[in-house]
Amino acid sequence: MVACTRSATVFNALPKSAQQGAKSALAEIYNAEDRQYAEAAVKAFAADYGAKWPKAVATITDDVDVLRCSRSTAVGVEAADRS
């Protein structure tokens, strides 16, 4: 899944001490109800981590549409499986 690959790339760009907070921030992005909330979560991630770890932030900000697409596709598949 694309989201898992992106998470690994972000974690590789962060020190261990920052990974737990980043994990929560990424969950906010992946689980956002709609695009507006996802974009707000990305901005918050960039504000929190951008100064010290720009590579990690670039991984997220460059592919927001891909992340949201993978989430909406996964939700659609889960809904279809439940029917």
Write structural notes for this entry.
The structure is a single chain. The protein has 83 residues and is mostly helical. It has one domain (2-82). It has helices at residues 2-12, 16-30, 35-49, 54-61, 64-82. Residues 73-82 have low confidence and may be disordered.
Q: Give me the secondary-structure category.
A: mainly alpha
Helix and strand element order: HHHHH
Number of strands: 0
Q: How far apart, in Å, are the first and last alpha carbons? A: 23 Å
Number of distinct helices: 5
- Number of discrete domains: 1
Could you tell me the mean pLDDT? 78
Radius of gyration: 13 Å
Catalogue the unreliable spans. Answer: 73-82
Please give the share of residues in helix: over 70%
Shape, per Cα inertia axes: globular
What's the story with the biggest beta sheet?
none
- Strand-residue proportion: under 5%
In short:
This protein has five helices and no strands.
Supply the key terms:
mainly alpha; 5 helices; about 80 residues; disordered C terminus
List the topology elements.
Blueprint: H1 2-12, H2 16-30, H3 35-49, H4 54-61, H5 64-82
